[in-house]
């Protein structure tokens, strides 16, 4: 399970070092193999351990691609999915197309969300957090049955 947010740097080649607290898990469970793809509704990337991604691919394969919405989702997720292997220094080299989609600068945020990570441009991440906090304060998040009985 991944949690927390880490501020990281992209080098000139587009690489970032996965924090040690996550690296050990990725290396032991999937030999350091991860899949990165675009997020569907936000300007960030999703990074999955291989085993998690294979489950998603299996579920995507069961959806009829005759449905235009399903086809768009498959196209975005699968068409942009790129497999990476952590290098000997625990780094991942992100493809230019993925960096461009998320408009990543030199400073990024790696955000643990249980089974995956989000990768954000650092400034955009802070702005998103500000917006989310403001929406929550104003009670303007859309209702969701899954959250009706959720308490903290």
TrEMBL record:
InterPro entries in the record: MraZ (IPR003444), MraZ_C (IPR035644), MraZ_dom (IPR020603), MraZ_N (IPR035642), MraZ_sf (IPR038619), SpoVT-AbrB_dom (IPR007159), SpoVT-AbrB_sf (IPR037914)
Record CDD domains: MraZ_C, MraZ_N
Domain annotation SpoVT-AbrB: ranges: 5-52, 81-124
Coarse class of the protein's main subcellular location: cytoplasm
Pfam families given in the database record: MraZ
Keyword Transport: no
Compartmental location: Cytoplasm, Nucleoid
Subunit (UniProt): Forms oligomers.
Protein name, UniProt field: Transcriptional regulator MraZ
Taxonomic path: Bacteria, Pseudomonadati, Pseudomonadota, Gammaproteobacteria, Alteromonadales
């Amino acid at each position: 399970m991944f949690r927390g947010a880490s501020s990281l740097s992209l080098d000139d080649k587009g690489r970032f070092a996965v924090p040690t607290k996550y690296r050990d898990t990725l290396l032991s469970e999937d030999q350091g193999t991860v899949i990165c793809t675009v997020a569907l509704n936000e300007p960030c990337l999703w990074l999955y351990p291989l085993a998690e991604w294979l489950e998603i691919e299996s579920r995507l394969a069961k959806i009829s691609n005759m449905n235009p919405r399903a086809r768009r989702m498959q196209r975005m997720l699968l068409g942009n999915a790129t497999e990476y292997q952590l290098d000997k220094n625990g780094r991942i080299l992100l493809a230019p197309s993925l960096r461009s989609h998320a408009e990543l600068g030199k400073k990024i945020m790696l955000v643990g969300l249980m089974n995956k990570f989000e990768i954000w441009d650092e400034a955009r991440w802070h702005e998103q957090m500000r917006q989310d906090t403001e929406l929550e304060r104003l009670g303007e998040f859309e209702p969701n049955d899954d959250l009706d009985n959720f308490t903290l």
